[in-house]
Amino acid sequence: MLIRPSRRRLLLGSAATAATALLGGCDALVDNDHVSRVIASAEGLTKAAQRAVLSDTKLAREFTQTDLSPVFKANGTQQPEGEAYAELVETRFANWRLRVDGKVVKPLELSLAELKSLPARTQITRHDCVEGWSAIGQWTGVPLGLVLKAAGLTSDARFVVFHCADEYEKTLDGSGQYYESIDLVDAFHPQTILAYAMNGQELPVAHGAPLRLRVERQLGYKHAKYVMRIEAVDSLAPIGRGKGGFWEDRGYEWYAGI
Amino acid sequence: MTTLQPSSVASSAAALPRRRLVYRHALAVRLTHWLNVICLMFLLLSGLQIFNAHPSLYWGQYGANADQPFIDIGAVRDGDRIRGVTRIGPVSIPTTGVLGASSVNGETRARAFPAWLTLPSYTDLATGRRWHFFFAWLFVINGLAYLIYGLAAGHFRRDLLPDADQLKPAHLVREIADHAHLRFPKGEAARRYNALQKLAYLAVIIVLLPLMVATGLTMSPGMNAAWPWLVDLFGGRQSARTLHFISASLIVAFVVVHLVMVLVSGLWNNLRSMITGRFAIDTDRSP
User: Signal peptide location in the record (chain A) (predicted)?
Assistant: First the structure.
């Protein structure tokens, strides 16, 4: 009836061995391609679940002036390199043009003054970094949907890509250039704006001057700074390393709602 | 399969066996228990990887480097050495070697939680997040399956809800004294969980584990838009992050106590009962 000590020892011994192997083998598991694919499958589930409980127009919470962070942390690139950008700053972005092209009926080139003449939206929202910190700031800008409607998306457009002025990682093939992408649900969300002002001031260079994306229901890395060009596409595969963004190309989720 | 009846006894033919096996844990309980062990282990290790990306905790809606943290695991330079310092409110504790600064390939580096406590062992937030969310889904599905089973099969009512006699102050005081002396119920009394055990399990099942899910979801900007009441419930995203950490620490504390209890109250018997379902009780009353 009772299990003999030798068998008991054997069972306990193998349990201890398994536990040690499990802890020591975590990195091996992480590096395994098959395991990684299974683990990554949860992203689709997360996106489907969030979209199921989140209507396309449900707003992120908006705060008041008294809720603003005393210091809004600047992260990622805080000063793009290169003469071209330096010249833009020097001329206060007078010669800067936002290109809107790709799968559009009418490609656009918009100056900062033209963008500012369009109907604007101001929102005080919480910015959540993937690292874990949050900051509350006020943003003013043009709803992205207005710009896209002006350009007229063709029927095969599925994503909107934001090409940025900053090269975040030095690479030989140029894949270190910052870019981001969102789908049309987020592109036409009322709070998705191209912000040119922050906390009532012109958008500072550290926060993405002259123009940064706000896509309030997702994490900070989706909020592309230094936006130079907006491209409507039917597939993300040909851009960068094909995952839809600088950080996505480096393992982060494309859907950053969590 | 799902009963804890006295009749489901596998005993020897002797009229008064000294030791007999009773069927204690239903298959559903055993399966969900071990799946939960796997989930919690990966959630903890990947969670500490995520924590390391910003090892400060705040209270309220916002919180970043310029704001006053509530808990902070940092590193300070001391000449050409790095020292780990953990701050909880106004208290600073030197924690070099474990928290704040620890050895990475033989060299002391600034790092909130040490390499041996994170998944992967090297710094990789993206991987930590992917593993965390995969096991969070598994944990939630497994937890729901357990809750449905527990309610439908009467497991909570029968096995986990303390009986009236167990809640009498005198009984509770005696149980506390018994625990302090590592004296555990024998014979028929060992058939049911003791009151402290029941209360501890219920606190984890009803409070801590759901709190982990709720505070985790409160950190999601997508879920904040969908269910803004979650943010209000915890007083802000950064409060929720702090509570997520505290709640995880309490679960770790529970697991430590749980493992010690498993060890001192009969390791093999406890382990077998959670694997095969069968638990041996002594029917010999003589000391």
Answer: 1-21
